[in-house]
Amino acid sequence: xxxxxxxxxxxxxxxxxxxxxxxxxxxxxxxxxxxxxxxxxxxxxxxxxxxxxxxxxxxxxxxxxxxxxxxxxxxxxxxxxxxxxxxxxxxxxxxxxxxxxxxxxxxxxxxxxxxxxxxxxxxxxxxxxxxxxxxxxxxxxxxxxxxxxxxxxxxxxxxxxxxxxxxxxxxxxxxxxxxxxxxxxxxxxxxxxxxxxxxxxxxxxxxxxxxxxxxxxxxxxxxxxxx
Length: 227
Fold this sequence. Notes:
Layout lengths: L10 H12 L4 H12 L8 E4 L1 H7 L1 H11 L3 E4 L11 H6 L3 E2 L1 E3 L8 H5 L6 E4 L12 H12 L6 E4 L5 H8 L4 E2 L3 H10 L10 H24 L1
Parallel strand pairs: 1-2, 2-3, 4-5, 5-6, 6-7
Helix pairs in contact: 2-4, 8-10, 9-10
């Protein structure tokens, strides 16, 4: 969900959001994309990630109804703290959508129960302190962090921020339930655009090729764990 001031995101997603808005992308079009995708795929989960302002402007009740009708499964709204759950988190759960929380390296054991109280779907562990795509995660510390979070919740824990390679994905998947990749995919997409900022002949392959490599990394970790 593109927004003009994505404060948790790094240069890649900031620039992508501005490109999208300049090209006329709006919340109605984002939901239309979900509806179009659902015509051919009713199984793959869809999570919309972004900031509260575009939702608030759209109208909370209207947004939740339209998102549910379009086929959205869950939301990540990065700038809504748990202290404001009555504002949007609880209505989201009531509407039948998951509300996915973020935990960070600075979310200590005292804070975690508050963060996780109304979380659903999965927990998104932010592996670095800072913005998206700005640094590589320290994979040696991730398994410990995931184990600590799992002491407070039965939800799956997915890890993201800074993941760019199949090797990083493999290392993270050894200790986590899922791997989240954003900036690397946005960069692959951006590099494939033509001089007018339009998708080129190699755009789809650029994205699917990276997704395939990342998925292979995750699956290799799963095979090792199974053995």
